[in-house]
Design a protein that fits this description.
This protein has one domain. It is mainly α and about 90 residues long. It is about 65% helix and about 0% strand.
């Protein structure tokens, strides 16, 4: 079974929508190519709120987005790096 079955993706979507930083807990140890765009959106909020572990996950997500290079990945990676102060 994939790390990201329908229930797991639903939990991630809810965490991103809530914008309360809970996305870090949902993603911890599970950041995969399947969810990079969704994860990045949630990590922007988590970094802004100084949620523990958000900086590391955001940096990891930005690097993975740049490596994958799908439509929109570069823009989101730029946003994440700007949020991290690495622009």
């Amino acid at each position: 079974m994939s790390q990201w079955d329908a229930e797991a993706v639903k939990a991630l979507r809810i965490a991103v929508y809530e914008g309360d930083g809970s996305v870090v807990g949902v993603l911890r140890g599970r950041l995969t190519e399947d969810v990079l765009q969704l994860a990045g959106d949630g990590l922007l909020d988590a970094v802004a709120q100084d949620v523990e572990g958000a900086v590391e996950l955001a940096a990891e997500c930005a690097a993975a987005l740049r490596e994958r290079c799908w439509d929109g990945d570069e823009d989101l990676a730029d946003q994440l790096q700007a949020a991290l102060g690495r622009r």
